[in-house]
Amino acid sequence: MKIVITGGYGLKNLGDDALVIACCSLLESCKGDVFLHDPRNSYLPDFVSKEIGRQYIRWKGKLADADAVVYGGGTLFYSYSEAGINKKFGWGRRIIRGVQHPKAAYQFIMSWIDARKRRRRRKTTIMLGVGFGPFHGNELQKRRALDLVNSCSDVVVRDSASGSICHGSDTRVTEAHDLCLIPRFFNRLYPSIGNGKKEGIIIIPRDWEREIKGKSIGEGLKQVVENYAMEGGKIKLVFFSKKEDEKWKCFAKKLKDRFGERQVKIIEWEPEVGSIADFLTCLEDGEAIISMRYHGVIFSMLKGLSVYSVPIDNKLIYLSEKYSVPLWTGDENLRNVSYDVSMIRKKIERAVLENEKLLCDIVVRNFSL
Length: 369
Fold this sequence. Notes:
With 369 residues, the protein is of the alpha/beta class. The protein has two domains: 2-179, Rossmann fold (3-Layer(aba) Sandwich); 192-345, Rossmann fold, CATH 3.40.50.2000. 42% of the residues lie in helices and 17% in strands. The strands form three sheets. The chain has a seven-stranded parallel beta sheet with strand order 3-2-1-4-5-6-7, with helices on both faces. Strand 9 and strand 10 form a beta hairpin. Helix 1 crosses helix 2, helix 3 (90-100) packs across helix 4 and helix 4 (102-121) runs parallel beside helix 5 (139-150). The longest helix has 25 residues, at 342-366. The radius of gyration is 21 Å and the shape is globular. The model is unreliable at 82-89 (pLDDT under 50). This is Polysaccharide pyruvyl transferase family protein. Keywords: Transferase. Residues 13-310 form the Polysaccharide pyruvyl transferase domain. Pfam families: PS_pyruv_trans.
């Protein structure tokens, strides 16, 4: 059997890079060959082979030609643009949008064709730990997601909001946890090995904007960080993406130039250089972590660290509610932000056990081991 793993991989994003590792580790015992869908011809096969310790190669054909396809984790289907379509003028608007955004139109058409081919050929397709939405009225993208859901034998979503998108589907849909909450990462990332003094604040930034009471969360956090630096506080800015977050990187560089490297450190994920576990040791020496990234919160919880979830996106709010992680409000005193993580730790331990059983059962059910 030829199994192909696909997702939003190969973009030098730590969260997505971790998701493909999680997916590969879950399929290690499967009979057959596991391939990586890597249309960008990226660093992905070498990176995964190094992390897992066995050779993985790039799938060179179409997804529809594989014996089985696994959509492995992450927010795979969403739209951050207002795209409501009036029924009366629906097709006209779709055509116009297709001309304006040919890449998105091509992806939609090809996924629609692939889903129907796979259903007709009765090929196995599953989704593990995926997120859906928000769609902001983009019914075209929402239908694309539902079409793929309907072509699957099993779909595992990471939160109830994603599960609600699948209502009405005949596919077996189960709510679980993020794909990274599995024993592989749990055992390798915890307990934290740092034994030095914890001082300063760690920021995991993202260039996404959201306002609360008319004020930008991101700009507000920058001001808090700058004030903290002016008071002599130590700051580490950890970037999970090599290609994104240019605004925050510009801010970080100016901050470092102003206050010096002893007070301001900048660290950036580079998949070609080190391992995930080695990179994440940079989170261990701060009093607390303020994360604008979803997997920044996930990995901080796995490492048993004090973390705040910055509510720039609904998925960070869902994460906070699900695991009792405090939301960053902007009113916190950065001199006193560490807290007791024991309750969160218990929830994460339970989540890892639940995820392991559920995901392993689904893999066994779909692929004879």
